[in-house]
TrEMBL record:
Origin organism lineage: Bacteria, Bacillati, Bacillota, Bacilli, Bacillales
Family matches, as Pfam families: FeoB_associated
TM ranges: 6-23
Keywords for this protein: Membrane, Transmembrane, Transmembrane helix
Protein name per its UniProtKB record: FeoB-associated Cys-rich membrane protein
Length: 55
């Protein structure tokens, strides 16, 4: 009985985290490429460069 309960709890944790990660991914992807990036503040991508430095 305890093993069954433990397996159900472990399965719920795995599926719960999977759902959380998937929802977070979808929300970030809707923001766009650079807006969802964790390096948004320090990124040196073309879109974040000042106008006089862009090619």
């Amino acid at each position: 009985m305890l093993t069954l309960l433990l397996n159900i709890l472990l399965g719920a944790c795995i599926f719960g985290y999977t759902a959380y990660a998937l929802i977070r991914f979808v929300k970030r992807s809707k923001k766009g490429k650079c807006a969802a990036c964790e390096l948004e503040e320090t990124c040196e991508h073309e879109t974040s460069l000042p106008r006089h430095l862009k090619p």
